[in-house]
Design a protein that fits this description.
Layout: H1 2-19, E1 31-36, H2 38-42, H3 44-47, H4 50-58, E2 61-64, H5 70-73, H6 92-103, E3 107-115, H7 123-128, H8 132-149, E4 156-161, H9 185-199, E5 204-209, H10 218-232, E6 239-242, E7 245-247, H11 254-269, E8 273-284, H12 290-306, E9 312-315, H13 325-328, E10 332-333, H14 346-368, E11 372-375, E12 382-385, E13 390-396, E14 402-407, E15 412-413, E16 420-428, E17 433-440
Parallel strand pairs: 1-2, 1-9, 2-3, 3-4, 4-5, 5-6, 6-8, 7-8, 8-9
Antiparallel strand pairs: 8-10, 11-12, 12-15, 13-14, 13-16, 16-17
Bound molecules: (3S,4R)-3-hydroxy-2-oxopiperidin-4-yl beta-D-xylopyranoside.
Amino acid sequence: MKKLFGVFALVSIISLAKAQGLQSFLPSGKYIGTAVNDNFFNNPSANGADYETIVKKDFNVLVAENAFKMGSILANKPADPLNLKLSDLNLSYVDKLISFTQSNNIRLRGHNFVWYAFPPSWLTTEAANWSEAQLYSFTKQYITLLAGHCKGKVAEWDVVNEAINDNSTPALRSADTWYAKATSPQAFIDSCFYYAHAADPSADLFYNDYSIETSYSNKQSSMLTVIQGMVDRGVPINGVGLQCHFESGVNTGDWVYTEVGKVMDKLGVMGLKCNVTELDLRICGSASSITEQADEYKHFVNILLTKSNCNSLLLWGFTDKSSWIPGFFSGCGEALIYDNNYQPKPAYTAMKEALQASNSVKITNANSIAAVVYPNPSTGNFMLSSSADILKISVFNVQGKEISVVENVKEGFGENFSQGIYLLKIVDVYGNERYEKIEKR
Ligand code: XIL
């Protein structure tokens, strides 16, 4: 019995720990995630058990740092690249991540189908001999097989990654890509979205890039033109991913958050989502500190919480022990929210506090949505007294039929209601609800 209690206590502690991770403070429909690297798949002991424990505790969306890229999936040259078979695709990590996310109730993001960089080593030479039609055929087969295999299991895909030129002239990359045979890079990109949509119509399809986060980069206006064109042509695109690989303390002033908010709004007007897909805030020399970095991470959480068309914030890894930064940005590091020993850094605490604060606003208002409705003693109309601004009040009759919705109620309402009993559903500007029963005399 004692033993059983011990087991029970342990289980409770574990679930409490999970309950207190970053993701546990999110409102529904919002996701915080991380990229997981190859060690996660093939060498768990090198990372210690902590890696997986942290992933489950803190995150409700995952993406593979490399395992879903063509460079990994077609690393081995297929016998006949123009007649691809599912067995040509190396799907072992893909399947591992699918089953891990499914059994832990975590959303899965696919990154990516088409990227000019890091293609399989054989592809560029091979594709140089293809006709344009063969290029299209290969790409269609690849996307169809992979998206089809992951259908219903990968919630969203980066269909095309980093297709816009750094200097934006011409807008789209071409010569330096394995898909250079595409005479119109734009038509090629559009086609990739059509192929992905046909293979998995329910997946959200994204265009993903860097240096599109602020209007201070030429790439942003190119991106907006490219994406608006796709929307206008009816290409099945659902959103744009902002990578957000920033240098802490250097390109992270307050203006950045304003700029990120603005581009999210612009894409929102096009009917698109806009997610932060690869956030890391590297520290290079003395330009920043881990406390300054903490404040920067907090701002990104607030963007996630406040922007209605931003539903996920993904970090490009979570521990400084395995981050791409030191290898790609010389002299830089410490970009993530856990240190080399899997200990949370100030950035982690700041993110958690930002999430808790938003949660506590909700709870406070849910309890104190003191939206008291009472009859005006002289007229019998309804009077409202509320600490939070009220968005709307739905009025139901005793049969439960909604008979009216009143909006922008400041003080009194109900002049038009006949005598009787009504049920009111009161919703405040935070989305909190309260039900009241009241009699009109
Ligand atoms: C990087 C990975 O982190 C590295 O491990 C790999 O060697 C190269 O790719 N933008 C992207 C990501 O879209 O796929 C890149 O990931 C980082 C920049």
